[in-house]
Each structure stands twice: as C-alpha cells, then as structure tokens.
From TrEMBL:
This is dolichol kinase. Its main location: endoplasmic reticulum. Keywords: Endoplasmic reticulum, Kinase, Membrane, Transferase, Transmembrane, Transmembrane helix. The keyword Endoplasmic reticulum applies. It is a multi-pass membrane protein. GO terms for biological process: dolichyl monophosphate biosynthetic process. It is found in: Endoplasmic reticulum membrane. Its EC number is 2.7.1.108. It is an enzyme of class 2 (transferase). It comes from the Eukaryota. GO terms for cellular component: endoplasmic reticulum membrane.
Length: 510
C-alpha cells in the first residue's frame, strides 16, 4: 500500500486493538476505584465514551482500508482515480448506514436525543480518523506502517476530540441536548494537563497557521518579486518565529484561560509552579541538564567515531531515560508531568524547524538527529525520539489520577529503558537462537529482557514502599504482564517504543 514504510509488516491488528484495550484496562481500574468511592460515576461514563470513540475510529479505518484494498486489486493504473473515488463513495455510504442504524437503535432503546447525539459524536471520531490517516500516509509516505499510523491516528482523534468537547463544555449552551453530552467533559482537569493539551495542539496546528500567514504576507508584500533569494529566506524565517511567538504566547494561552480558571497568565502559572519548591525543582533540573549534556555529547562522539550499530547506540538513550525519569517519578511526579509536556513541545518544534530547514537551527538539528536514525526513520520525518519520550510519558500521564497499581506509571521506563535495552544488547552480543529465520530477534535477548524487567520490579517495589506507597502486589499478574510484554517485543516488527509501554501498562492495571 502507498505510504507504508518499506520492509515493515502491516501491524494492523496490533494498531487496532492497542488503544481500545488500554481504555478497557483503565476502565476496570476506575471501576475498582468507584467501588471504594475514590471517584464518581462521571469518570466511568467519561471513559466509556472514550472507549467507544477509540473503537469507532479503529473500526472505520479498518473498513476504509478494506475498501481501498479491494479497489486497488480491481483497478489498474489507468483508472485508479476512478476506483479511489469509488472507495471514498463506498465509505461514505457505509458510514451513513452505520450512523442511521445506531441513531435509530439509540432512539428506540432510550427514547431520547442525547443518546443519539452521543452515537453521532462517537461516529464523528471514526470519520475524522479516516481523514487523518489519509493525510498522514500522503504527507509522510514511507515513514510508518499501517499499524503505527492507525495507533497515532486513533490517539490524536480521541485526544483532540476530548479537547473539542472540553472547549464546547465551557461555552454557554442553550441546547439541553448538547449539554447532556458535554456534561461528561465537565470533569475537573488539572492545570498541567490543560497546559500540555493546549501546547501540543498549538504546535500541531502551527504549520497550517504559518502557511496561511506566509501566503497572506506574500500577497500583501509581494515577497516573490522583491529582493534576492537570501532576503526572501530571511524574511520567511522572521515570519516563522513571529508566528510561533504569537501562537504560543497569545492563541494557546487564550484557549487555556477559556477552559480552565487560571488566575494568572498560564506562562506565569508555570513560572510560579516551578519555583513553588525551588530547591527540589532546580536541583532536579540541574541533574537532568548534567546527565543530558554529558550523555548526548558522549553518544554523539561515539556515533561519529565508531562502528557501533545505530540500534545499539540508541539503546544508550533508553538507559539515560531510566536515570532521568525514575528519581523524578518517585519524588516529583507532578513536576515530571510538566517536564514531559515541555520536552514533547520542544521535540515538535525542533522537528518542524528541521523539516522546513528554518535558519539558523534547521541544518544543525538535521545533522545531529541524522547521527541516530535507522531504517525506521527517514529524512522526511524522524519519529524514534518521539516514540521513546511518549512511551515513557503516557503511562505516567494516564496514572496522574487514581491508580492502585504503583508499578503502572513505570511501565514505559521499565519496558523501554530496561527490557528493550537488555533484549537488544544481550541478543546482539550473545544471541544464537532466533525466533524466525528472517528476523533478527533472539530467544536469548527476549529472556534477558523479561528477566531484567522482573528484577527491576523487585528492586523498585521496596523503594516505593519506603517512600510511602501502600499497596498489595499480585505476583502472578506481574509475572504474566512482564512475560507477555516481553514476548510481544520479540514478536512484533513494529516500532516497539510505541506499543510495548501501552500493552505493559494495560496488563499492569488489570
């Protein structure tokens, strides 16, 4: 299929079940919390709606891919556009039929418009997911498998669908039917989650905003006919940075203040939060900067002056993530939540600068990032650092509310920083027995990964108990979670940084 990373398996099954399974495990955990009156019923209803939205997104994308596959088999190069039009038309017909069926069923069962509105709201996620995965595969061809694109698409649609409903819930509405849906999004959000959501959305929307500003400026000032190429490029860079400052300092904070009662500007709130405990925060930041500086400098020199394989060189960053995130997660979890959001924002911004070659950082960022890329990256889009960061951050963000499984926030750090690293290093150096004739992963590496994660859990539990965590551990469940996630790492040919932490987190929550 066009747009798929060369040599990658489809990964459709894994991409389609990961996010719905994650939401099911989270829902089970919230039900346990509801039984002891730790959360309200609105949390359960909220997660149910999120689950159906994710399921609808995956289902509609799978329907669309099936239709496209059939059309490509029947069509030839000469009439491919006709078959693509037929595929879109067929998908629209299927979508309308499903929507009418669900709305009619909801109306008959519940005799109320709010339930029908919720059904439409869920199916809108499916339509948005289809449109988004088309854009991803067209704009970033050969950068991901279908499964990876499906996971990213579903995650973005659910996350920003939540943002849209959360925004609408804060706008005065005179329609009772709308308020019946939006009341689910009246759940109290923390300032940190609001800041992260707004910042990520602003940066993802920024390329569209910048292109619009650039077209408007070119129309007004006629940049295309004045000055040499050097001057036009410099003006383009100035417009880029000015547009970026406007987006991050004006547009995004305005949305934050609309949906959350910030008593000061959100940027000032961040400043006050960081310096509310200056000794702890500044000490942690200093420790991070020292570790990152010396580690990155050392790894970059190794990448230029040695024949170490890229895949092993990148595992050093996994070990660095363990040394950075574990102390912060134990002693400063809320500050780590904000730091993850800041790091993700920086990564997004640097990737935009790299792709558009914005002066003066574009070339330098590309040169640095290219030293650590492998077959899963391309010049068009480098995703490995995003997957590592999100693989460690998502379990922590998901656990920011109620959690009765103390190891669940560490799912990404343990599976990527410990398990994946040990599996690669041991398998590369000592592996003999391969899982398949065509694959590179070995039984020795998988055994080392599973054993190391279980040993890290045993070492981490007493430390958590000493810091005040009170919990009971189901050892059989822990062994099953570690083993299944380790075997999945050996089985899958997908970008495991994206899948393994979510699967491990789901199993730990159960």
């Amino acid at each position: 299929m066009v747009g798929v990373r060369p040599g990658a398996s489809s990964g459709i099954l894994l991409g389609a079940v990961t996010l719905p399974s994650l939401l099911v495990s989270r829902l089970i955990q919230i039900l346990r919390a509801f039984s002891i009156q730790e959360v309200g019923i609105e949390e359960i209803e909220y997660l149910k709606l999120q689950f159906w939205a994710a399921s609808a997104s995956c289902f509609m994308v799978l329907v669309f891919l099936c239709i496209i596959g059939q059309c490509q088999e029947k069509g030839s190069r000469s009439n491919r556009s006709l078959f693509c039009w037929n595929a879109n038309f067929s998908f629209i017909c299927v979508t309308l039929l499903i929507e009418l069926g669900l709305v009619s069923l909801a109306w008959k069962l519940y005799a109320g418009w709010p339930v029908a509105l919720m059904s439409l709201w869920v199916l809108c996620h499916g339509v948005a997911a289809v449109k988004l995965i088309q854009k991803i595969l067209n704009i970033f061809p050969a950068c991901a498998s279908i499964g990876e694109s499906l996971l990213v698409t579903t995650g973005l649609v659910v996350y920003f669908g939540d943002m849209l409903a959360y925004t609408a819930a804060k706008i005065p509405s005179y329609l009772d039917s709308s308020r019946a849906l939006l009341v689910l999004y009246g759940i109290k959000r923390s300032e940190i989650s609001t800041i992260i959501q707004g910042m990520i959305f602003g940066l993802l929307l920024f390329p569209v905003f910048f292109k619009s500003v650039l077209h408007l400026w070119g129309y007004l000032a006629r940049l295309g006919s004045n000055g040499d190429i050097r001057n036009r490029e410099m003006r383009r860079c100035y417009i880029f940075y000015a547009s970026l400052m406007f987006m991050l300092a004006m547009v995004v904070p305005s949305w934050m203040q609309l949906v959350h009662p910030f008593h000061v500007h959100p940027l000032l709130w961040i400043f006050h939060f960081v310096f509310s405990e200056p000794l702890k925060s500044l000490t942690l930041c200093t420790y991070w900067l020292v570790v990152i500086y010396f580690s990155v400098r050392r790894f970059y020199n190794i990448s230029k002056n040695s024949k170490t394989e890229r895949i092993l060189l990148r595992k050093y960053y996994h070990l660095m993530a363990v040394s950075i995130f574990v102390p912060a997660l134990i002693f400063q979890p809320r500050f780590l939540d904000l730091a993850f959001g800041a790091a993700l924002a920086i990564f997004l911004l640097l990737e935009i600068i790299r792709i558009w070659k914005v002066w003066p950082l574009g070339h330098l960022v590309h040169q640095f990032m290219n030293a650590f890329t492998d077959h899963r990256d391309s010049d068009l889009l480098i995703v490995s650092h995003f997957s590592l960061l999100l693989g460690c951050a998502l379990p922590i963000w998901l656990s920011s509310g109620f959690t009765d499984r103390p190891l669940a926030p560490f799912a990404g750090i343990l599976s990527l920083g410990i398990g994946d690293t040990m599996a690669s290093m041991v398998g590369h150096k000592y592996g003999v027995l391969r899982w398949s004739k065509t694959g590179k992963k070995t039984i020795e590496g998988t055994a080392a990964g599973i054993t190391s994660v279980f040993a890290a859990c045993l070492a981490l539990l007493p430390l958590l108990a000493a810091t005040g965590y009170i919990f009971t551990m189901q050892w059989f469940s822990l062994v099953v979670a570690v083993t299944i996630s380790g075997l999945l790492e050996a089985y899958t040919a997908q970008l495991d940084n994206a899948f393994i932490p979510l699967v491990f987190y789901s199993l730990l929550c159960l």
